[in-house]
Each structure stands twice: as C-alpha cells, then as structure tokens.
Amino acid sequence: MSFKRYLESVGSCSSAVEWVGKKGLNTSWKTCPRGDWLMWFIVRSKLNPKLIVRAAVAVAGQNTWAVSDKNESLFEDALWQAQCWTLGKAQSLRAASKQLARAMRYPTYDDEFYALLCAQYVLDVIEGFENVDAYVGMFCPLRIVSITSDLMASCTGEGRKTSQKRCAEIIRSKVSLEDVGAAVKALSKKGVLFT
Q: Residue 159: left if φ>0, alpha if ψ -120 to 50, beta else—which one?
C-alpha cells in the first residue's frame, strides 16, 4: 500500500492526501509544510505519547510572548510539568492544571487566553494518554498546533502558511524520522502496511 493510500484509509484530510501524491513517508515527513498534518500523523500513528507531548510542549512554548508577567509562571510551570512527565518525573500536573483553569476563569479571548489554553491542552494531552481517552489524545495536540499557528501569524505578521511551516519544523525537531519509522514499523506488524 502506498503512503497516500494509507493516509486515505485512516481518514486524512483530502488536502494532505493530495499534497502527498506519490511521495513516500520519508519525503513527506521531511518536507511537510504543515504542523497540523504532522501532529495528526504522529498521533494517528500511535507514536510514543512522550514524544507527542514533547512536540506539543515545544509548539505551545512558542506562545510565551503572549503571556503577561502575571501569568508567566503558570504558563511556564504547566509546560515544565509536562516536560517532566515525558521523563517520568512529573510532580504536580493536577495543580498546574487547576492554576491555569483559575487564570482562564473569565475568558478574554485575547492572545494571552489562547496561549494559556495551549498550555492547558498540553496537560490535557497527558491526561488523555493516562486515561486512554482517544478523543483528547487526538484533539488537543491538533488544537495546540492550530492555535499556535494563528498566534504566530498574528504576532509576526507572517501568513498562516509560514507559521504552519514553522510549527512543522518545531515538531520535526522533537520527533525524528526514526521515531516515526519505528511507529510505522509497529503498525505494519499489526497489518497496516505502506511503502
């Protein structure tokens, strides 16, 4: 089965499938211009949850500029706790989540609110993995990339395509082709094959 046919079989969006065309996994991974497509793929490929969280933390961390001094420590603590979780050393994920919820209690829907929401989504991803909640495990990483792309575009004045590309580069810096290849190999042992 070709990579394109695999993507069709697992419900990829038509624009991603069209972009892949005849490209294989290696070329697609190295050249994909959209962070949301990469994040979707690694989540859908059942990549190690710790790698997904590392990528989510790195993407969400791009939003530090939008967080006020008042909430900066909450934002940074949430991402730090998530990073510690990837190392098996998280201590207060629940406390960090509660503090973020309090900070967002009266939503302003400004850049800071969405930056804090990304940090909350990172913690939600962990909770989703720990509680085997497939919806949260799939939805939250994609929302992190989408929100961050929008915030980057508004902050820098660059287009959304450019900010999506930057998110893709961030994800690739945290998740290697070898990591993806190992996940694909594990799937192929379960009968999901593509070249």
A: beta
Which of 40, 28, 58 lies closest to 122, judged by CA?
58
Residue 195 maps to a domain = no
Which comes out higher in pLDDT, residue 43 or 135? 43
Token pair of 150 as six digits: 């929008």
**Model confidence at 68, in pLDDT bands (50, 70, 90)?**
very high
pLDDT, tens digit, for every residue of 91-126?
A: 889 999 999 999 999 999 999 999 999 999 999 999
Does a structural domain hold residue 92? yes
More confident residue, 136 or 100: 100
- CB neighbourhood size of 46 (10 A): 15
Q: Check if the beta carbon of residue 171 is closer than 8 Å to that of residue 35.
A: yes
Q: Give the chain's domain count.
A: 1
Residue type, 48: N
In a domain, 194, yes or no: no
Closest to 177 measured CA to CA, from 51, 1, 22: 51
Instruction: Give the residue numbers spanning the domain of 182.
Output: 3-189
Pairwise CA distance, residues 139 & 126, whole Å: 12
Q: Are residues 39 and 171 in contact, defined by beta-carbon separation less than 8 angstroms?
A: yes
